[in-house]
Amino acid sequence: MSDIDTPPFALFIRGPSDVIFTLSDTLGFDAEMKALAVSVFEDGPQHMHVQALFAHEAEAQACLKTLELDGLEHFITQLPDEDWTAKSQAGLPPVLAGRFFVYGSHDADKIPPDCPYPIQIDAGIAFGTGHHGTTKGCLLAFDDYIQNNTPSQILDLGCGAGVLAIAAAKALNIPVQASDIDGDAVQVTDDNAVLNQVAHLIHAFKQDGLIAVQEFDLIFANILAGPLITLAPDIAQALKPNGAVILSGLLDEQSGKVVLAYKAQGLHLTRHASLAGWTSLTMKKA
Question: pTM surpassing 0.70?
Answer without folding.
Answer: yes
